[in-house]
Design a protein that fits this description.
The protein is of the alpha/beta class. The chain is built from six helices and eight strands. Strand 4, helix 4 and strand 5 form a beta-alpha-beta unit. The structure holds S-adenosylmethionine (SAM).
Length: about 190
């Protein structure tokens, strides 16, 4: 299944840390791409450093108009899954979501325009209480992929973590070059 994430909505003060975390969760929880606007270009750089160190070709695309993206993804047979606390309970829609081929997950940053609710194929609530786009996205991806995303190995990684009960065990798969400091990712 192919999953991409679209982050819409601007806050009065741009919150780069939350946006970075939305991108990192998308990558680590099995999506292949995030599309966003009004994002600091440094976020793209951060994600590409993470890709280089830990593997995967997860993409970040900075976009101008989210409406165009929504419409073009719909015509490219993506199902639009909008995360909102007002939507249907995840427990009742997850079996249907697992059967889809291509999904575009839409997360907001603040109040989301009505049009998104209407364009969405599924408006999905991760519980009917307000919380966070990062948490909502992580849970949605995990419910759809049922943990299989955590079995995935990245053959192009420079470093690979060996899960251990205590401490840290990391295999270095290449010789690090100047600038590839592992401390950046600890
Ligand atoms: N009251 C806002 C709204 O219109 O949903 C909450 C905004 S919240 C800070 C930012 C985003 O987090 C929302 O647009 C939604 O994508 C996601 N979110 C927050 N709580 C959620 C929930 N219970 N279920 C699904 N998504 C949620």
């Amino acid at each position: 299944m192919k999953i991409e994430v679209l982050r819409i909505g601007q806050r009065l003060v741009r919150d780069d840390r939350v946006t970075t975390h939305v991108a990192l969760v998308s990558r680590a929880f099995g999506a292949s791409k995030i599309l966003m606007y009004d994002a600091n270009p440094e976020i793209k750089e951060t994600v590409s450093k993470v890709n280089k160190m830990w593997g995967s070709d997860f993409q970040v695309e900075i976009i101008e108009e989210w409406k165009k993206i929504l419409k073009s993804k719909k015509s490219d047979s993506y199902k639009i899954v909008h995360l909102t606390m007002y939507g249907e309970n995840i427990n009742s829609v997850e079996p249907k979501l697992r059967k889809e081929d291509k999904i575009l997950v839409v997360v907001g940053a603040e109040k989301v325009p009505r049009e998104v609710y209407d364009l969405a194929d599924y408006n999905v609530a991760i519980g009917s209480q307000p919380h966070s786009e990062i948490a909502a996205l992580a849970i949605l991806l995990d419910r759809i992929l049922e943990g299989k995303q955590f079995q995935k190995k990245h053959t192009d990684a420079q470093r690979e973590i060996v899960p251990t009960k205590r401490g840290k065990q990391v295999i270095s798969k290449t010789t690090l070059k100047y600038g590839d400091r592992k401390e950046d990712f600890e």
